[in-house]
Amino acid sequence: MKICIACGMPMKELSDFAGEDTSKDYCVHCARPDGSMQSFEERKTNMINFIIKTQGFDEKAATKIAENNMKKLPAWKEYFNIGD
């Protein structure tokens, strides 16, 4: 089972993969309509909105949660100066 490099979602079913392409390392939720992976800012905004909608946090708290989660994901390592 693959884990999405951009959001951490387990990808178990063909429909979980971007474009139903199992060679992709990112999921359907992290893909643009053309199948390419969303940018850092797109993914961050979408993650913040998802946290607000599903967990009821305000924008400031949701932003902190999203950033803390993104710091742990391979796709976004270059955006955070971990260990520097």
Please outline what is shown here.
By secondary structure, this protein is mainly alpha-helical. It is built from 2 helices and 2 strands.
Rg from Cα: 13 Å
How many strands? Answer: 2
The chain-level mean pLDDT equals: 94
Question: What percent of residues adopt helix (DSSP H or I)?
Answer: 25-40%
**SS content category:** mainly alpha
Strand content: under 5%
Contiguous uncertain segments of 5+ residues: none
Shape: globular
Strand order of the largest sheet: 1-2
Largest sheet: 2 strands, antiparallel
Order of helices and strands: EEHH
| Secondary structure tally, helices | 2
Structural domain tally: 1
Q: What is the terminal-to-terminal distance?
A: 32 Å
Map the helices and strands.
Blueprint: E1 2-3, E2 10-11, H1 40-55, H2 59-70
Antiparallel strand pairs: 1-2
Helix pairs in contact: 1-2
Overview of the molecule:
The model has no long low-confidence stretch (mean pLDDT 94). The chain is mainly alpha-helical. It has one domain. The radius of gyration is 13 Å and the shape is globular. The protein has helices spanning 40-55, 59-70, and strands at 2-3, 10-11. It starts with a strand and ends in a 14-residue tail after the last helix. Helix content is 33%, strand content 5%. The chain contains 2 helices and 2 strands; from the N terminus they run ββαα. A two-stranded antiparallel ribbon has the order 1-2.
